[in-house]
Amino acid sequence: MSQGMSFSSLAPIVLVTLSALFGAKKKTDAPVPLAVHPDNPHYFLFREKPTVLIGSGEHYGAVLNLDFDYVKYLDELQSNGLNHTRTFTGPYVEPEGAFRISGNTLAPAPGRYVCPWARSEEPGYTRGGNKFDLARWDEAYFNRLKDFVGQAGMRGVVVEVVLFCPFYEEPQWELSPFNATNHIAGFPGVARTDVYTLKKSGPLLRIQEEMVRKVVTELHSFDNVYFEICNEPYFGGVQMDWQEHMVALIARTEEELGSRHLLSMNIANGSETLRTAPSEVSILNFHYASPPDAVYRNYRLEKVIGDNETGFRGTDDQVYRIEAWNFIISGGGLFSHLDYSFAVGHEDGTYEYPPTQPGGGNRGFRGQMKVLKDFVEGLDFIGMKPDASFIKKGVPVGFTARALRKEDEAFAIYLAETPVPKDAFSVRWDGGLKPEFSEPYTFYIHSNDGVRLFIDNKKVIDNWTKHSLIEDQTTVDLTADHRHAIRIEYYQDGGSAALKLEWSSPSQAREVVPEDRFLLPVGVKQGLRGKYYLGSKFDRLWKSRDDPVIDFDWSVRSPFDGVFGGAGEEPLAELVLTLDQGNYRAEWISPALGTVLRSEKVKFVPGETVFVSPTFQGDIALRIRKE
């Protein structure tokens, strides 16, 4: 569970001091680094162009793993038009098999791990080789780091340099150069949960400060770099005042160097609402940010908001494609997919990972990210902001609509199937019941979960609770050949799902109520009209259908299984939009293929206008531009 963080503890005097430091003039002729766009701080300015950062990158070990051919890797990113990658600096490294990752680039083979510090003459590093000398830099490492960043820059790729990462569990801590068993500094050991604190880290704080100054100094002349203080600091005991300290240290160092690179903080997994954010931090990064609530909750802070790591939602492309589009079309400025198809020996992204991998990624998916990047770049996105108020109706049931808008000039809409909770739904059946005999009938309902039965508008069974399979019964007097009104309401909330309606009478043996005794609400056709809803509140209608009998076991196959619906139907959107008067070009685009499915010129008059989509599966995008 993510604990998130709050910046409310930042003292104003610290922010003022850091702002003054960042205001220093440049002392070098180095290229202008990546910056926030002066006209819209939710996006970037890179090499004089408005920029959204979108990547699908390896697991952060490109530099510290000597076996990884990062040139081939960067070539693959460039070939897909992607412009973002992350890399870890080296204090954190993983053992083989960590987090069930196969081909993990953050788990170098013995003897193939490098970090900022040189090896000593003393053997005994946990994963083979000599211990580290925290008083000496490994210049070969820094040459590799600078070459990686330089090679990325030649390909238009921005590098997020992640300075630190918490030690989640002891196996990671056992491999770190910061662990007393792995270095020759001679000072007492520190608990892994105290490493990134100001008061308990002991001499390690000075080592960390020196490393930050060294990394920032070595990379100060590169324009395609920004620094993230710590990956996932909401784990492993990382303290906020320690992060603030590192922000201040970078500010002082860059003032001396005459450079100014952007700073990022990783805020939370999923989402969190910040009351304030440090003025020196320009990028607020979240992990696993689906749905994109992190954007809506923090947009007012006037920062770039990023979805900076994905995973743990299977290995299929569609779920991560929808996550990316939802986030960017909601106003996010950065999306970085964690792509497990990159591994040593497969730096071109062709590694075939097992289905147990905690995420996805492949060459086809990277092509889909290029479609997203091209879509956004085809708009004047600097002048746009998240706003779906012009969409009045027509979004298909079970879908969400995200939108960006530049007032009266450009509109971007993304429709995506909402992951249907197969074990959280409700159904309401209505119709008539025509018994054969005039006598008391006993009704038996087997249900898992809640159920209600109404006969002639009177509630006769009410067990609206979450429960395992049980039977409820009631007895009602019925009249032969008379149409009695019947309604059945049911909801399912996790686990097994079942519903069956039986009856019996003195003249009728117990049986499932047959189809020929049910009548649809209108006419004389047999059966009951069922309306199926997402959730348990009967407020998100998914579809209606005629059911002959009430005898369902949905424990294995939910009525919501399938691409859309349960019968593979392709939805059609009939969006009712309010746009200003003028001539527009509208393009329906496939997010998976990048193809324009339909393009048309439309002349708007004040009021509402209907846009009808082509049929589609999963998701579709609409781009409207004034001509």
Class based on secondary structure composition and strand pairing: alpha+beta
Annotated CATH homologous superfamily of the largest domain: Glycosidases
Number of structural domains: 3
Number of strand elements: 34
- Unreliable spans are 1-28, 562-569
What's the total helix number?
A: 9
- The CATH architecture of the largest domain comes to Alpha-Beta Barrel
Overall pLDDT = 91
Describe this structure in words.
The chain is of the alpha+beta class and 627 residues long. It has three domains: 12-377, Glycosidases (TIM Barrel); 387-419 and 567-627, Immunoglobulin-like; 424-553, Jelly Rolls. 17% of the residues lie in helices and 34% in strands. The chain has nine helices and 34 strands. An eight-stranded parallel β-sheet has the order 4-13-12-11-10-9-8-5. The longest helix is centred in the middle third of the chain and has 18 residues, at 240-257. The radius of gyration is 30 Å and the shape is elongated. Residues 1-28 and 562-569 have low confidence and may be disordered.
Brief synopsis:
By secondary structure, the protein is an alpha+beta fold.
Record the SSE blueprint.
Layout: H1 12-22, E1 35-37, E2 40-46, E3 49-51, E4 53-57, H2 70-79, E5 84-88, E6 117-123, E7 130-137, H3 139-154, E8 158-164, H4 170-173, H5 204-218, E9 225-230, H6 240-257, E10 263-269, E11 283-287, H7 293-298, E12 304-309, H8 317-329, E13 334-338, H9 363-377, E14 385-386, E15 391-393, E16 399-406, E17 410-417, E18 424-433, E19 439-448, E20 451-455, E21 458-463, E22 470-478, E23 484-493, E24 498-505, E25 508-512, E26 518-519, E27 528-534, E28 541-547, E29 551-553, E30 574-578, E31 582-589, E32 596-604, E33 608-612, E34 619-626
Parallel strand pairs: 4-13, 5-8, 8-9, 9-10, 10-11, 11-12, 12-13
Antiparallel strand pairs: 1-2, 2-3, 6-7, 14-16, 15-30, 16-17, 17-34, 18-23, 18-26, 18-27, 19-22, 19-24, 20-21, 20-23, 24-25, 24-29, 27-28, 30-33, 31-32, 31-34
Helix pairs in contact: 1-6, 5-6, 8-9
